[in-house]
Amino acid sequence: MRGFARHALFVFTVAVIIVVGSERMFWYWSASPLVHPEAALFYSASAAAFLAVLRRFEVHSLTGVVLATPIVAYVTEGVITPVLYSGGPTPFFPLWFTAWHGLLSALVLFVLIRRWAIAGRTRAVAGLSLGLGAFWGTWLITSLLPDQLEDPELVTEHGELVAMAPTEFAVYATTFTAIALVAHLVLDRVWPIEPTTLFARTEKVLGAVLLVGAAAWTVAAPWALPMFVGLCWVQFRVLRRHRDHRPVDRPTVLESMRGPASWRSLTPVVLMAPVAALTYWAWWSIEPSEAVLNGIYFGVIAVQTLIAGAVLVVSWRRTRRAPDDGGAIVESSGPSAPADATVDVAR
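-> structure tokens emitted (347 positions)
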């Protein structure tokens, strides 16, 4: 039971990080950090599914991580909520949510920052944090759009919506940047050595529960369950091929991410907050027109969707290669990495 509790806390901590990207960078209407743990409980299903896929398919490279990230999106928006099906059985929402929940939240905020911090790549973490901060401040300025402030669903859930002033947003960004940073530090304390038998059985139960959850949404969208199963099946098929190409001497991603990650390597994460705040203030100061805000809003969505589609296609094609050379996510500094494992995903 102690091992099970440790693994459950590990999943929750990963979910805390993912929620920062998936919710706090997406909007700030639920601004209180007190609601963050509640959101992380829901996202624990997405985090658990992602981690289970990484483990089951012995994901060992950046290619494999990319192919696993859609699962975060499918569970978040196809089981926890039914938004995945609102566009019908089309690829638009699966790709956009893969870009946001999968590539941004799971891959960038969790996997890349964790790996680079373990490797002591302080400059890489700093550069990534600067970029994330600029993106964060730019995207959330679109909250000034009338369609956002008057959204009936948001108004019903949160009451009257008022866009944050720059000083308020600075506090908001600082708060959730700190939460992400602390969660990364906590991972060193709760990272499990290997899954317990009890937790492995729980993962099987989780799979059944997710199927039931997707099936429940067929009341609103008849294509919900077949769409969910079909999307997951595609990812599992290519991940199986990826696993078949794993070199025998290469550790998996989860094995290479055990750490430890030092304070020094993770400290640059704090740059996200001031950069986000300054970017938001800059946009606020120039008072962009509604046309400009719409351009940012729809432009970000379009670019994210295209990036997700391109990255997935490239990753699918790389799984046809043997052995896989899709970017090993291993550094020699990891405690479980072999001495000659020096290929780095950032190169």
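The chain is about 70% helix and 0% strand.
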